[in-house]
Amino acid sequence: KTADLHGLPPGVPEHLQSEGIEELYPPQGAAVDAGILDGESVVASIPTASGKTLIAELAMLSAVQRGGKALYIVPLRALASEKKAEFERWAEYGVTVGVSTGNYDSSGEWLGSRDIIVATSEKVDSLVRNGAPWVDDLDCVVSDEVHLVNDRHRGPTLEVTLAKLRKINPGLQTVALSATVGNADEIADWLDAELVQSDWRPIDLKMGVHYGNAINFDDGSQREVEVERGQKKTAALVDDTLSEKVDGQGGSSLVFVNSRRNAESEARRLADVTKGHLTDDERAKLRELAADLRDVSDTDTSDTLAKAVAKGAAFHHAGLASEHRALVEEAFRDRLIKVVCATPTLAAGVNTPSRRVIVRDWRRYDGEFGGMKPLDVLEIHQMCGRAGRPGLDPYGEAVLLAKDSETMDELFERYIWADAEDVRSKLAAEPALRTHLLATVASGFANTRQGILDFLDQTLYATQTTESGRLETVTDTVLAYLEANEFIEREDDTIRATNIGHTVSRLYLDPMSAAEIIDGLRFAADKRVEKLRVIEGKESTSSESKQQKRQSQEEPDMSAGFTTASDLQAASNAADDEGGSEADGSEEADDEADEFETTYPTPLGLYHLVSRTPDMYELYLKSGDRETYTELCYEREPEFLGRVPSEYEDVAFEDWLAALKTAKLLEDWASETDEDRITDRYGVGPGDIRGKVDTAEWLLGAAEQLAGDLDLGNNVAVREAKKRVEYGVREELLDLAGVRGVGRKRARRLFEAGIVSRADLREADKSVVLAALRGREKTAEKILENVGRRDPSMDDVEEDSETRVATG
Ligand code: ADP
Hints:
The protein is α/β, with parallel strands linked by helices. 52% of the residues lie in helices and 11% in strands. The strands form four sheets. Strands 10-9-8-17-14-11-13-12 form an eight-stranded mixed sheet, sandwiched between helices. Strands 3-4-2-5-6-1-7 form a seven-stranded parallel sheet, sandwiched between helices. Strands 15-16 form a two-stranded antiparallel sheet. Strand 18 and strand 19 form a beta hairpin. Helix 9 (260-274) packs parallel to helix 11, helix 10 (280-296) packs antiparallel against helix 11 and helix 22 (603-611) crosses helix 27 (715-727). Bound molecules: adenosine-5'-diphosphate. Adenosine-5'-diphosphate (ADP) is lined by residues 21, 24-25, 28, 48-54, 351.
């Protein structure tokens, strides 16, 4: 019983009871028995939706009650604020919560005052690198979705971060939450933790395959769901769930598909099903929601989403803006939206249970695999686990779709009867080790080859590997790479990070990205020297030739002899003229040099540079793109910071063009091209634009720092390119767009109304500002307040800190 729990801040057990949590679920009880309230480490491997979060909360709250500090590692950035909000209900018992999202290059010292800190593994890794002092004071760390160590891209960071935290804090309580995986025991071994493993679920889950006119469930039962001619299976299944009333309410469905495009088209189709099941009241609320969604952004995606939502259906994928996602999730939980079509990202962690889950696609295109590849059992199980809302549905149903009986048999074999795969460490991959070895050396975890190998011995990889010597070989390759790029240096046995190596590690760059950026900046610096030499050269050759000319003019004159004073005067005037035009010539050269200095490197050149680093996810070239971008590549060639690969270097050239496509997107964004034009032109969602913009901003910030440290030239150009991409504006709007609440569109409108700077904005006629802001009174007031213009009537109101920051 929750009332019997010990070691928690006073009031917490009663609070849980008030939330309807009177008794622990069995796996939660097992975790308490394993000692989570007493600082013991536990790995909990239990199904989705069976109360893992409470296990984490109990561990963290008891650590705080003992005077300690806890860290909660979230699997997705989008979940950080959701979790923070959830934990903040403990504030009334004196527990403080901080979330660390922000940039990867600060030490987040302020977090030291919080009891519970929420962050992604990447963020924690960077905080460790930046020497956040509170990292040494941790008593409890929770790793949510720890099975993600299996992920090729993000797994190694989580793995190394946990190993580091445990090395810094011997005796650290480690609570790892995992979906049901094949080898939870190995994870528990690695983390020296007690294993709590269970298949228990708060609500029954029936899994089955729809084939013909019925769902065949794993318990042998069948449910007839007829598919009419011309009707899609998904439509029939969604209609069927909605028609089965429980307490007067039809059930909702979650449909998993394999691509964003499919999510959108499926939602559009299913909207025609859901619209027939709405009450008048629901229709009105949905119309309002649709308007809210349109307000978020002015894009086609926004519009498509709003249209579907007005009829009771929605889609959900990583291309959506986070405000879109939050609105959709909330309305689905409130049962206003009847069906959500999602890509598998939704299955990872977002709490959106539904009566029926339909897994429409169980294969997905995989570039590295070169074709359609079946999803992992673990992924399918996580999707299915979303079925059934405790207290609302009699049971959850998860349905896969088969067009023939062989496929049905295969699906039963492959997914329904199967256990989830084992989690395997991906640490031995070179890109992962490149980053982590540099960080390990830079932050002083190890300073010899042996020390590094000893540290790596504490990872899951070491627990799992049977291939002896593999890790050693990769370690040597990576150390050689880091040394060749001057990020580390070796003296006898000792390995040290160079200054630049420290910077790279703190900036959270993949060393390969750093090397690329440094190369690009060097290329630019060399080009500048060369260009200035040419300009100077022109200047000196032109003055030399003038000298010669003058002499050759004077000589014949002299030889002819000046006969009169006026002749002499004329000769001297001519010489003066020459002198005058010589001065003009050098001014011209100066101007040319100045212009070059201020315009080189160009934003496009810099965007391309950061877009070709491994830290920027590429945009792929679609059919027709090769021609378009090849042409653009030749047109803009002088701007690139590096040598364009020849067209015969197939892969390198293709990569160059893909980076150019990303760079062009960033340039469009920084030239105030409309968001929906960009989404159209590049085939991306608004969320992708934000993603690219954020990454570019971070990488350009890093470039600025590297250029400064290595004395590689024009930092102003880098800073400006960064600011322009940050605000999405042309140069002349930089000042205005930086004011909180202004943004790219409003800045342009203010500019057109003659308000071109913050100073103007402070002085401008209020009616002009209001007109430029399309009569939005509240917005205008907020903006004026942010720019530091105070209403006389507000004189006795204390200026808030945000205003002070905004006005600098
Ligand atoms: P998971 O993280 O395992 O997917 P959650 O922690 O989100 O699952 O829990 C799912 C739901 O179950 C939440 O709404 C939570 O409030 C509820 N819940 C958790 N534990 C209990 C309990 N002991 N009794 C009743 N409800 C609970």
